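[stage:ingest] chain + small molecule (manganese (II) ion)
[stage:ingest] validated
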Amino acid sequence: MIALDLARLADEVDAQLAELATFSAAPAPAVERVLYTKTDLEGRAYVRSLAERAGLKTRVDPIGNTFFRLEGADRDAPAIATGSHVDAIPNAGRFDGTVGVIGGIAALRAIREASIVPARSLEVIAFTSEEPTRFGLGCIGSRLMSGAITPDLVRALRDAEGRAFEDVRRDAGFEGALEQVRLPEGRYAAFVELHVEQGPVLEAERIPIGVVTAIAAPASYALEVRGVGGHAGAVLMPARRDAMTAAAEIVLAVEHAAKSTKSADTVGTVGVVRVHPGAINSIPSRVHLEIDLRDTDLASRRDAFAMIEDAIARVQRERGVEIVLRTINEDPPAISAPAILDTIEASSRALDLRTRRMPSRAYHDALFMARIAPTAMIFVPSVAGVSHRPDELTHPEDVARGVAVLAGTMLRLAAAEVLHG
Ligand code: GLV
Ligand code: MN
Ligand code: MN
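[stage:predict] done
[stage:export] tokens:
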């Protein structure tokens, strides 16, 4: 057991989250740190400074995944890891991902300050590009680390400006072959990610700790709708093959499909729309859409996708447009390791904190770490369930409780503690 001053921890971590939020491409309270941009690099440097001040050793891999390590008594035994991300989508808040990185560093610092030498080493990982903003694919760092994606597929990625992943990576100062990012199964004895819930359940039920049993299966697709452009005044309506009106039908079909499966958990979103040429007096000739589709139940997600495919076929037929669909990712759900769930609950009980088992509807790096290590997650409440918005909020005392449970969980997972004099 480790005794923590929760009030002090809450103040410190809250101040660090506030400082990290100042590295942002968007004006406060919005936060934006897109992969390999100046603010992403500043955010990484800031958390690295916190980790090094806490006495942790840093390693950065070729894609920028950053590992902060506290050595245990047995340095060769598989470590216990935690971590999350500091990149932030446009118009984000300050808690998504950051709580798991800054909170992880705070947990390891508290363990070190208590002069506890864990039996195994403990690590905090700040993952590269959990958010899909720049290259359209989320969790690039953890996918590569776990072998869920090949280096060739990462090298083939291009951003919206057509820049190749490797060029952007090199310009950001990351070197070495992507092949070196992969970690073998067995490198970590366990992975536990601390994250804000991003949903309303914990706050509504006044429960401070969520114990995540599974992570919903995410999928995403890119769609190119090709119509015929022309003069917005001169081309009469019967002659049109407008790519945008066709795309609008697809957007509605995604919503309809997500609402029509047997599962209440199916969600479908079109969050990216790019219209070409994007002039008010020009009929759109090309539209790029990106669809996000998820469910905790894979069969229901597949049902929704089948409905979207039917809608695509119909819209092509009826509107004389061509639609090209590309799958970006179709991932299975992750199931948490029962022994880690029990450990999180035991650590919470030791702190007199109530818990609730629940799924994660958002995806996280834990989705991919689960492929190479027994994995689970700890959730802390999100005020009104708000996330991916500037008004995202988790109260400092709730973050501190999450950090305390994380510290206890990591120590229990590392098993026997050797106390320094
Ligand atoms: C992560 O940010 C997600 O979109 O679930
Ligand atoms: Mn996010
Ligand atoms: Mn996140």
